[in-house]
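Hi L.,

As promised, SXP/RAL-2 family protein Ani s 5-like cation-binding domain-containing protein:
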Amino acid sequence: MLPLLLLGLIELTTASWPYYPGPSGPQSPFPFSIPWEAQQELNNIQNNPNLTRQQYENRMNQWAKKFGLKDKFDAYKKNINDQRIKAQQKLDAALKALPNYYRQLRNIENDNTLTRPQADQKRRELLNTLTYRLTLE
C-alpha cells in the first residue's frame, strides 16, 4: 500500500511538465476552449521533442499571447505548479516519515513478547497511522 501511495505521489510531481498529448490527435490539455488554429499550433509546440524546457516555456507563452489566452494560460500554469509543489511536499513528508515507520516496524518484528495476532494488530495500527496522515493532507 505504501509503495503504491509513494508511486502515485511521484507521478503527480513528474507528470505536470511538459504535457505531450501524443499522436492520438489534437486535444486541448487546458480546462478552457481554444480555437482550432490555436490547437494546431499548440500541438506543433507540444510534439516538438527538440525544444529545451526554456524554449518550450517561451513558445507556450508566445502562443498564449498570440491567441489572447495569456491570462487563462498563466492561471492554468499557476494551478499546475501549485499542485506540483503540494505533491512534492507530500512526497517529502512521506519520505521523511519512512525511516521512523521502518524503525517501529522492526521493533514490532523483534518484540519476542508479542503473540502473532498482537504483532499483526500492531503492524496494522502502524500502517494505518502512516496512511492516514498522508491521505488527509
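The chain has a mean pLDDT of 82.

Thanks again for sending the construct details.

K.
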